Amino acid sequence: MSERGYNIAVIGAGKVGTAVGYLLQRKGHSIAVAVTTSEESLKNAASYLPGARLVRDAGEAPADTAVVANVDVILITTKDGQIESACKALAAGGGLTPSHTVMHMSGAASLDLLSSAKAAGAGVASLHPIQSFASVELAVERLPGSYFGLTAEGDAREVALRIAADLDGKVVEVADGHKTLYHAAACVASNYLVTLIYTAQKLYAAAGFEERAAIAAMMPLVKGTLANIESVGTAPALTGPIARGDAETVEQHLKKLVVMGEEIVETYRMLGLRTVDMAATNGTLSPEAAAKLYAVLKTEHG
Prior knowledge:
Layout: E1 7-11, H1 15-26, E2 30-36, H2 39-48, E3 53-56, H3 65-68, E4 73-76, H4 80-92, E5 101-104, H5 115-119, E6 123-129, H6 136-142, E7 147-152, H7 156-166, E8 170-173, H8 179-189, H9 191-206, H10 211-232, H11 234-237, H12 241-244, H13 247-257, H14 262-281, H15 287-298
Parallel strand pairs: 1-2, 1-4, 2-3, 4-5, 5-6, 7-8
Antiparallel strand pairs: 6-7
Helix pairs in contact: 1-2, 1-6, 9-10, 13-15, 14-15
């Protein structure tokens, strides 16, 4: 591979693939080919990846030997369900050799999806950004400084480490057999946080807040909580009625939430029980206070 920079093909140049390609170009790598599925992605790729050969065809294009000709690294940044078929198409094209590294950027998918590339002699790796991206612009902004989950074999590990370093990322090693749990943790921390905020937004709306006002009011609280977690850890960052052992306030919440419907009540109850578990396990809540809270949270308040 090139000492100065890799020649890279991006298969699935959506938000992540385009942003990764853009950032790697800035560090001296060359994006030779970008394959995408939509007109919008094609426009973004044209803007962010000047000089790349742009191909809009996720089905036929990967089998084109020109995709892998004169490239060192193939980044597969498609949806998880398309990784294996894209890799098989590349392998079927006959252009993969031991000089290639094929890498996907999925959090949940194992290296097994790249087995066809491995069988062709290519190195295989997975490099997953532990980050959330709503657009190419935000991905370009947030990728640097993010952590990346790395799963790799042989020489492909060194290639992945260099790419992570050139993205100004930090690396954590993830065993291939642990990827599903690793990705579930990321989903809870990111995706389900969105659902939690949405639930809080509904409660604020019931209290008379407009949608944007509710979000604006919550953001300093959410950011402050995250800053506390980053500073002192999860259990010590806990505040509020459960941290204080205030079973009366929790009971008042439940009685009022009944009018919001069973789903809201059960969400509050489940989160409350898990919060008592955490506080009790970490010794920040006395056994007596925990018992009172468990009793309140397990009582029907309809």
